[in-house]
Amino acid sequence: MKTSTVTAFCPGHLSGYFRRVKGESTAGTGSIGAGIVISEGVTATVTPADSISISVRRQEKSGNLTGFSCTSPPLEYVLQNLGITASVSTLCRLPIGAGFGLSAAALLATLTAVNQSHDLDLTPHDIAALAHDAEVVHRTGLGDVAACQAGGRVVRSGPGIDAAITRFFDLTEPLYAVSFGPISTPSVLGSREQMERVAAAFPLSPPRNAEDFFRISRRFAENSGLLTPEAGTVIRRCAERGVPASMTMLGNGVFAYGHKAQEILSAYGDVYAFTVAGNGARIVGVRP
User: Fold this and answer.
1) With contact defined as beta carbons under 8 Å apart, do 132 and 161 qualify?
2) Number of domains in the chain
3) Could you tell me if 118 and 84 are in contact, meaning their C-beta atoms sit under 8 angstroms apart?
4) Do 179 and 158 share a structural domain?
5) Last residue in a domain, options 108, 135, 166
6) CA dist 245 to 49, 235, 241, 277, Å?
7) Residue 195 belongs to what domain range?
């Protein structure tokens, strides 16, 4: 076993719309839908240790670091399944639990770092499979891991990490987001009634282009029953100014596209800026 400390990064994912697909196993369970893999995400630092310890932190807009949690059931689950003991510290800048796919990003970043720090020889596919299993078991996500295997604006036509995924790199301007707080992903994904409304709102055909993606995503948010009053107000304001926007899934917030979006969103709170990610999880640092 290596004794090095390894740091990895994985981008997050904005889900525009989705529909749950239940399979016979966690590998075949997931979602279909479309979203955007974003340049902001989670950095995970892993050091071999005698026991498992987890530190989840967030860097606020002011630059201050805040401790969000000292536990993470999905991360503990994958480490225990691998028989690995390690000290894991994750860090992000985006709000946690607010629809930015940070649970999937944390899993993929951590497993990518663990793979090198503990010399496991896992393939990227192995890592994604472990992360997807943890997400489904803990109801923290359905399609984020599949999307975050690489970058781009994505359309997922089947559940799980092996399904067909089409990636587009047609969003050349920045993306901006504002968050009003988290929405409990497990409670939504575990609600039969809510999942039925989500399924009924799912579009009949995938988006033809980037503009169509935002149009379909907004309609899905409205028809699925997931749209919050706060997000609805901001999305309508963006529409008045001709700015493509929709709700962060699953979180009480809005993401919008283009330079004009920043000015509109700034009236409603702290604005987070990012671009479309070009790739998935990767090692960003190793030290003895």
Assistant:
1) yes
2) 2
3) yes
4) no
5) 166
6) 44, 6, 11, 18
7) 170-274
Task: Let me know whether 143 and 36 are in one domain.
Answer: yes
User: What is the full DSSP assignment across 38-70?
Assistant: EEEEEEEEEEE-SS-EEEEEEE-TTS-EEEEES
- How far, CA to CA in Å, does 69 sit from each of 4, 72, 182? 24, 7, 15
Q: List, for residues 187-246, the tens digit of each pLDDT value.
A: 777 788 888 888 999 999 999 999 999 999 999 999 999 999 999 999 999 999 999 999
Taking Cα atoms as reference points, which of 253, 281, 53 lies closest to residue 145? 281
Question: 159 and 178 share a domain?
Answer: no
CA distance 159 to 264: 35
List, as one string, the DSSP characters of 158-205: SSSTTS-EEEE----S-EEEEEEEE--HHHHHT-HHHHHHHHHHS-SS
Rounded CA-CA distance 139/33 in Å is 17
pTM of the shown model: 0.94
End-to-end C-alpha distance for the chain, whole angstroms = 13
Tens-digit pLDDT profile for residues 244-258 = 999 998 889 999 999
Tell whether 231 and 144 lie within a shared domain.
Answer: no
Q: Which amino acid appears at position 273 of this protein?
A: A
CATH of the domain at 50: 3.30.230.10
What is the SS3 string spanning 99-125? Answer: CCCHHHHHHHHHHHHHHHHCCCCCCHH
Q: Name residues whose C-beta falls within 8 Å of residue 190's C-beta, 6 or more positions apart in sequence.
A: 139
